[in-house]
Structures
1.
Amino acid sequence: MLKKNSIIKLINNCGLLMFGSVMVFSGLLLQIGYHHGHHGEIEAIRLVLGLNYFNWSDIHIISIILVSIGMVFHILWHWQWFKIVLQKRKLLIKNQQAILLTIIFLLVAATGYISWSIKLNGGSEIIRKDFIEIHDKITWILFVYLILHVKKRFKWYFSALGKLRRKRNSIDIKNGLHILEIERK
Ligand code: HEM
Ligand code: HEM
């Protein structure tokens, strides 16, 4: 039976897909459109696809916050999975792609959030730039692993939607039978 939890899981996974795409798109655009070839000042007012550097930076931050919230639930829902996989060598080797994705995601999140907190606290701009430089490089690896991860699980969205539809149909049939019974009485 499809539990209420499954609907929330579907909403969360759809949110991850949507905001994850915005996160990747805005991040790569900032890198290619503003960072590449600019070792000094960034041309912040130059428009790329109609928006300037600050707009794209805001879009990246908003999508990151939403993805981070979704990821907390995504990891918690698979907590048991992590516990089992990390205990058995065979399972660890079999699921190395998801484990590597987890490590890379945590590294990308750490470098991004540390850099952001340096900016918010008025810390050293040189240290901040070092973190952004690392962030820039490892996000490419994250990008590849995210594509592989989602591609492998794309069917899940259709089967989850199918289950939801079947559940709704069976509720409609049950309600119909109930009304017929009441009318007969
Ligand atoms: C493929 C995915 C990603 C790409 C291509 C990417 C790229 C970038 C780039 C280019 C910047 C610099 C923006 C600037 O110049 O202000 C940035 C900033 C940032 N990123 Fe990402 N990023 C990605 C994923 C993530 C993830 C998963 C997180 C955290 C969960 C994250 C957190 C941040 C934060 C907090 C900042 C702001 C840093 C600051 O303003 O000092 N990013 N990202
Ligand atoms: C941001 C984009 C992401 C999307 C759209 C996404 C989507 C999905 C989907 C549809 C599933 C299968 C259904 C389920 O069990 O919930 C899944 C499973 C899983 N995801 Fe993600 N995911 C994303 C990112 C991540 C990241 C960054 C990690 C690691 C920290 C991760 C770890 C896992 C694990 C451990 C599983 C269960 C095991 C497995 O299917 O191999 N996911 N994900």
2.
Amino acid sequence: MSNMNTAMIEKYRNNFLKEVEANVEEGEWVKMCMQCGVCSGSCPLGPYWDHPPQEIFMMIRAGKREEVLSSSSMWMCTSCYNCIARCPRGLPITHIMHGLAHYADRLGLAPKEQPTRKFAKHFWDNLTKKGRVNELKLGLKLYFMNGFGEGIKTAMKMKDVGLGMWKSKRLSIGELWGGHSIKDTKGLHAILNKAREIEEAKAKKFEG
Ligand code: SF4
Ligand code: SF4
């Protein structure tokens, strides 16, 4: 169990709703849910999730911490915004879903092999390094994220696409040794650090 997870269990003992309000983006909205089920009924992927949005909110209020945070459901949200457009209480459901996924990941409880989680991590690391996505490195990371053998198979399958991109100068092998960056990467990193600070300050505000 991660240190952060142990600390949070200790801190919010038996009050998962409060923990969500303090640490999850837009989490303070969860208590406004009236369990009408419109979001779950509107979600194109809801039937395929272990727990559609309405159920997730009910489980948070019921204190089912482990079940919610280790669920793969939040990672399935495609940000289609159907639920937000229809929720009679105006809950920012999409943002809460992503916020829950992010928080579960910080605690080390998110399902490790969930493909969206893996992709999101690779994309974020790639993007934030230089402020621009290095498509070649990201592509290779994704091909090989499920092991070497799987990576070779995928690379072979995609070789014509890769060649086409290379011929049309959309892909450069040089990207492997550096690649494009924005002018002010220091500035970008300062913004990201500030965002982290704001997140932590928000969590402290709810502590009392
Ligand atoms: S539509 Fe809104 S109020 Fe209804 S269950 Fe979903 S989140 Fe709750
Ligand atoms: S935004 Fe996410 S939770 Fe909302 S309806 Fe679309 S897929 Fe479902």
3.
Amino acid sequence: MKLIKPNINYIDEIKTFKYGFWRNWRELHGSNQLARYSDIRSWIESTLLLESNPAENFVRTSTYMAIQNNKIVGMCDFKHSLNHPILSLWGGNIACCIHPKERKKGYGAKMLNLLLCECMSFGIRKVLLTANFNNIASNKLIQASYGIFEKEITVDDGAKYNRYWIFI
Ligand SMILES: CC(C)(COP(=O)(O)OP(=O)(O)OC[C@H]1O[C@@H](n2cnc3c(N)ncnc32)[C@H](O)[C@@H]1OP(=O)(O)O)[C@@H](O)C(=O)NCCC(=O)NCCS
């Protein structure tokens, strides 16, 4: 597996990845809201801008496609700082998703491992990961990646999240 920044050479693969999700998806975690874009070129531009020059109230974020056998199997991002009330509480540094047909094959763990290497290359050594209390897969993925449980929190709408730290 390798992580690649979104680029126009992968437009067809990005479309295939996006439409491979269920019809009623609203969000593809870690994809800079790919679900909301009909124009893939605009999504690529917005993703690159989010890394180089984010809009006000957004933090610098790097987004990657996880490529396995020339196919996109997942997407992931990391926020370079937690300087935002949501990120510092329940959003965390990292978000990711694996294509529904590619789950439980170890790709999530591989992708997270590669993403942590990217974090390190930006000098980030302490990473906050959060998982909704009910999201078993996300909790398991973080635990399998040596996430250290900090605490459970409840946010305003009553949702519960587990907070974990990974020290690189
Ligand atoms: C969370 C997610 C990325 C995991 O991806 P994955 O490729 O299936 O994960 P892996 O195959 O690498 O599994 C990693 C660990 O989690 C466990 N796991 C994964 N899915 C699981 C599930 N549904 N139930 C129980 N355990 C699960 C695996 O057994 C493995 O643990 P182990 O090493 O102790 O055996 C994937 O389920 C997903 O995209 N979910 C939707 C988006 C999301 O919730 N993202 C997280 C929030 S940002």
